Amino acid sequence: MSTELGLHNLRVLDQLEEGDIVEFKKWWLSSHYGVYVGHSDIVHVRLLSDGEALFDTLPEGIGVAKKENFWDVAGASKAYKQNIDDGTLRSLDSKTVVERAMSEIDAVFSYRLCNKQFTYWCRYGMVLRSEVEPLVQIFEDVGYYIDTKILGPR
Fold this sequence. Notes:
- The chain has six helices and six strands.
- By secondary structure, it is an alpha+beta fold.
- The chain has one domain: endopeptidase fold (from Nostoc punctiforme) (Alpha-Beta Complex), CATH 3.90.1720.
- A hairpin with a 2-residue loop joins strand 2 (30-38) and strand 3 (41-48).
């Protein structure tokens, strides 16, 4: 991890409050989301498949909710606080958001439906679905393919 990236992520971590949604941006088409639960921990839905990386956006798969350290989830990704829908959706109080996230640890999900949507359920009490979501998922799937099959490990 570069010094610049490390400093950026440290600033983000220092500004996070319990219940915030965190986006881990691997590159412009590939992101992973989790809920900050305090003490530098993130609850997120992690893909379960033969040792695949945390940031897979496969079209299908099984995921499990896990509590992991911010730095382990971030890896070489750039982190952002992403409560951007607070202006249009009413967020639950931070204690409730954390309780919802923690209550799902080790729960198994369909990964495609529960990466970003898991964080919305925790923070807003709903799963956000829209007409553009399938298009966004296609771009994420293409991004995953390019990143893993064409560009390969870095």
